[in-house]
Design brief:
This protein has about 200 residues and is an alpha+beta fold. The protein has five helices and ten strands. α2 links the parallel β4 and β5.
Length: about 200
């Protein structure tokens, strides 16, 4: 599996590297994808170590036992990332009494600026509660996770990122069950795979 992840990571890196100008975000689109259970594999097998917003060491397998809603962002983002976070907050609000049974996870693309302190400040600014985990990792850990979640990103000269706007749902064992792409879109189809797990 590591050989496949490494090959995919190199291919994605090279495709981003060949662009002469920073990639611009495409117009907002919505794509709903139901992932085939039989071909899916748990992301919890990854041994990469992250650091959370409380400056504690964290591995993804710590999320096991609850469904997880996950997105990749960076805290210096002024539009898309706060919008993705708000969409996840809407999900949490609509799940209301069951929200304690769900993990909400944000993983930063920005391995340089998004220190635990920066992630903590973002969590406070967005009013994220104890059900949320924000992670900072190495370039390799972030790239590996992005490949497994099919999230593309590229860093520009200013240190910011163009990236896919995707919210993913993992089951209790870390298997990818559903993905939604787009901003300011209905969350209705995202509820189904979450509710099956709680």
């Amino acid at each position: 599996m590591k050989a496949i992840i490494f090959t995919l990571s190199i291919a994605l890196f090279l495709s981003c590297k060949q662009k002469k100008e920073p990639a611009e975000l495409k117009p907002v689109q919505t794509t709903f994808t139901k992932v085939n259970d039989s071909s899916a594999e748990s992301i919890y097998v990854l041994e990469d170590t992250f650091t959370n917003e409380n400056n504690s060491t964290f591995v993804l397998s710590q999320l096991k036992g609850k469904p997880t809603v996950v997105a990749m962002i960076f805290t210096n983002c002024v539009y898309a990332c706060p919008r993705i976070t708000s969409d996840m907050l809407e999900l949490q609000k609509k799940l209301s009494k069951d929200s304690d049974k769900i993990n909400f996870l944000l993983v930063s693309f920005d391995t340089e600026r998004d220190t635990p302190a920066a992630l903590k400040a973002y969590a406070n600014n967005m009013n994220l509660d104890k059900n949320w985990t924000l992670l900072h990792g190495s370039d390799e850990a972030v790239r590996t996770l992005s490949v497994l979640l099919n999230i593309q990103f590229a860093k520009d000269e200013s240190g910011n990122f163009s990236h896919s706007n995707i919210i993913s749902v993992l089951d209790k064992n870390g298997v990818l069950k559903f993905q939604k792409e787009g901003l300011n879109v209905s969350q209705e189809k995202t509820f189904e795979p979450i509710k099956k797990e709680i």
